[in-house]
Amino acid sequence: MEKEKKKGWTHPEAAEKYAQTADIIIPERKEILSIISRVAIELGPMDPKIIDLGCGLGDVTAEILKLKPQADVLMIDFSDEMIRRSSERFRDNKNINVVKRDLNQGLLDITGDRGFDAVVSCFSIHHVEFENRSKLYSDIRELLKEQGLFINGDLFREDSPAIDQWEFNNKISSLMIQLKEKLGQEWTFEELKLNRLENSQKMGDKPGTLLETFQDMKAAGFRHVDCLWKSRNLAIMAATKS
């Protein structure tokens, strides 16, 4: 599964397809990006230092810079193509550094800095292997200042299989309409359902439940863990170091 994931996301076509269709596949994406960036900035200092985990095309960082152009951001991704695109996008900003790293490998050797105001992530951690998530959360906590925040917008699985399946089926029905209206593509329900399941497997999607994530963050030492926003199987969680 890990090899399939890397093959999917490291291919240049995957980055281009995501850039073209992300807001169609995930209509809530812009709202999620806005909430993550606002929380990071509005609850942080005047000149924040932030890590953007699984930065992808750099959309979270772009939202952060709209609110705080002077923000210092360390962007991290494992895809060469995403790294290339993000580096090009922010090439003129001296406060932006882009680093390649698979989140399964941990974070602490990337930087000696343990004074970040926030760590943000959007649609990335559900690609991390389950057995590596507790260590990742511990690393994130160690990189933060005492009052630092971890804000994660991601794909989650419902605890009830019946509810999870119901949400997935409704997502497919809504997506059929969006693809026809926005791209002129016509799919049957079963065709699109199979397409999304195959894509999820290829990209290495492994969503956990909100409860599992809450427990993992608490076990990593975060003092407060909250769900800021939820819509179907998408949610934003925020955790404070102390």
UniProtKB/TrEMBL annotation:
Keywords assigned by UniProt, alphabetized: Methyltransferase, Transferase
Entry's Gene Ontology BP terms: methylation
Cited Pfam families: Methyltransf_12 (PF08242)
Keyword Methyltransferase: yes
Domain spans labelled Methyltransferase type: 51-150
Keyword flag Lyase: no
Protein name, entry field: Methyltransferase
Species the sequence originates in: Methanosarcina barkeri MS
Phylogenetic classification of the source organism: Archaea, Methanobacteriati, Methanobacteriota, Stenosarchaea group, Methanomicrobia
